[in-house]
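pinned: reference chain
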Amino acid sequence: MALDVLRSCYRFNARLDPLRPELLVEMEYYFTPPGAKIFPFPHILGSNNWQDPKEQFSIRLGEVEVTKRWVEGAPPALVTGQFFCGDVAKFAGGVDLVNGGTEPLDPADGMPLCCRGGVPLSDAIIQEDDFYILQEDGFLFLPE
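pinned: its structure tokens
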């Protein structure tokens, strides 16, 4: 599912555990496959590209700005963008990385197994192309 709107993709370190801010996890933004849905809940996984550079946060969850490395952006194999997996509250408030707070991962590529077939969201917004988003009710939504 789409978590943000970006023109290019990159790999970065992220702070996901609110109790252990020193723990960083490597993550990567990639382009969504055609027809991918928009993640419909609040989350900490948005890009810092939209962050006002004047705003400084000493410790916050999400992307750590100084670690950006550009990548091609091809989506992982078998990811359709139709599902999310895991507890929705963890997307917004972080996850306990030490005590097993993450979903089981595919040992071949590190992708959560449930991302390849998790919770379908039939009423979520569908990505139509890079500029317009077509909702399932037929109305166009123009991101600001």
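why pinned: The two ends are 19 Å apart (CA to CA). Residues 88-93 form the longest helix (6 residues).
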